[in-house]
């Protein structure tokens, strides 16, 4: 399987990248981003690109790929809706539409968030934008498309969050996350779970288009 990964410098994307590099079912990985992930591997190729709303100059680089694991995202904290929409919706749909023209039979997975508003009408700005992004991705026409709503995530393999407040929580309140995991084991996932889940749903499919923590854990163990 040949996969494209976005957001590989972030916590979730880095986790997905590491699992893809280790997995025998994945034989080629193309990382798309603005900066290098700083990883060397014989499966890995990096494609640096600045304009996430226009891929016309590099679209030929995407030919022949089986899946895209879209992990690019930002926190909505302190961000105006227009800017958040540009990053969350415009960037995602620009790449997805480009890929669909080139590889309509590929699998597209998108990291959304628990609490996403599929009605697009709620009071929470980020949830509406994520909801519209999910809905439009599901309607593009990929052979398979899966929306990931992981909720709380435990980073493994030395991965750090680039969002300061999240890393603060991991540094000082991991004991609480671990306690919640023991009390409700189906509600907490880790970065390895997400990576393995994406590989498995791309290879084998899944009965649901929207995956919550329990679904991620089920598919990670296939």
From TrEMBL:
UniProt subcellular location: Membrane
Domain of life: Bacteria
Sequence ranges assigned to domain NAD-dependent epimerase/dehydratase in this UniProt record: 3-112
Gene3D superfamilies named among the record's database cross-references: NAD(P)-binding Rossmann-like Domain
PANTHER family recorded: NAD(P)-BINDING DOMAIN-CONTAINING PROTEIN (PTHR14097:SF8), OXIDOREDUCTASE HTATIP2 (PTHR14097)
Protein's name according to its UniProt entry: NAD-dependent epimerase/dehydratase family protein
Organism: Fulvivirga kasyanovii
Taxonomic path: Bacteria, Pseudomonadati, Bacteroidota, Cytophagia, Cytophagales
């Amino acid at each position: 399987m040949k996969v494209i990964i976005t957001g590989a410098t972030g916590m979730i994307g880095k986790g997905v990248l590491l699992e893809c590099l280790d997995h025998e079912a994945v034989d080629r990985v193309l990382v798309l981003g603005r900066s290098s992930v700083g990883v060397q591997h014989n499966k890995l190729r990096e494609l640096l690109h600045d304009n996430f709303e226009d891929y016309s100059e590099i679209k030929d680089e995407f030919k022949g790929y089986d899946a895209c694991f879209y992990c690019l995202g930002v926190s909505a904290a302190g961000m105006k809706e227009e800017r958040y929409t540009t990053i969350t919706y415009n960037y995602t749909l620009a790449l997805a539409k480009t890929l669909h023209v080139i590889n309509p039979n590929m699998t597209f997975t998108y990291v959304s968030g628990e609490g996403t508003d599929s009605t697009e009408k709620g009071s929470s700005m980020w949830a509406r934008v994520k909801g519209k992004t999910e809905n439009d991705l599901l309607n593009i026409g990929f052979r398979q498309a899966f929306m990931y709503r992981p909720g709380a995530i435990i980073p493994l393999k030395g991965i750090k969050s680039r969002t300061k407040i999240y890393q603060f929580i991991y540094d000082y309140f991991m004991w609480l996350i671990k306690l919640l995991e023991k009390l409700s084991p189906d509600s907490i996932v880790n970065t390895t779970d997400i990576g393995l889940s994406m590989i498995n749903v791309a290879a084998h499919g899944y009965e649901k288009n929207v995956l919550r923590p329990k679904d991620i854990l089920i598919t990670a163990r296939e």
